[in-house]
Design goal:
about 120 residues; 4 helices; about 30% helix; alpha+beta; globular; OB fold (Dihydrolipoamide Acetyltransferase, E2P); disordered N terminus
Length: about 120
């Protein structure tokens, strides 16, 4: 068993080994990053076909680098469905699992790569 620092142990246990999925009741949706606007804002194309202005919260901004083409889980704001904030960034392996499960269509990934 490897001995990991507290920082690395915490990162692995954050979601209990499960990939967080979108939940319409909680107001979350999967989006793909189209471009950075500067600061902590970006434009993302969501699965419902809407382009949204997304904010990267401070706790993620310092830990996770979000670049164009990344697939993210977004929590929509209650008072404005055109805006939201990043909840989770999916890794490449997680995106492949989401495609296998049918949560994200392969066409969405292909269309996102063409936009960039």
């Amino acid at each position: 068993m490897r001995c990991l620092s507290k920082k690395h142990q915490k990162q692995g246990d954050e979601h209990g080994g499960e990939i967080p999925l979108p939940n319409p009741d909680e107001g979350t949706i999967i989006c793909g990053v189209v471009r950075h606007l500067g600061g902590d804002y970006l434009i993302a194309k969501c699965l419902d076909g809407v382009d949204r202005k997304i904010r990267i919260p401070g706790k993620l901004r310092r830990k996770v680098w979000i670049t164009e083409g990344d697939i993210i889980l977004v929590g929509l704001w209650d008072f404005s469905s055109e805006k939201g904030e990043v909840v989770y960034k999916y890794g490449k392996n997680e995106v492949n699992k989401l495609v296998e499960k049918g949560v994200v269509p392969k066409e969405f990934i292909d269309a996102l790569s063409e936009l960039i």
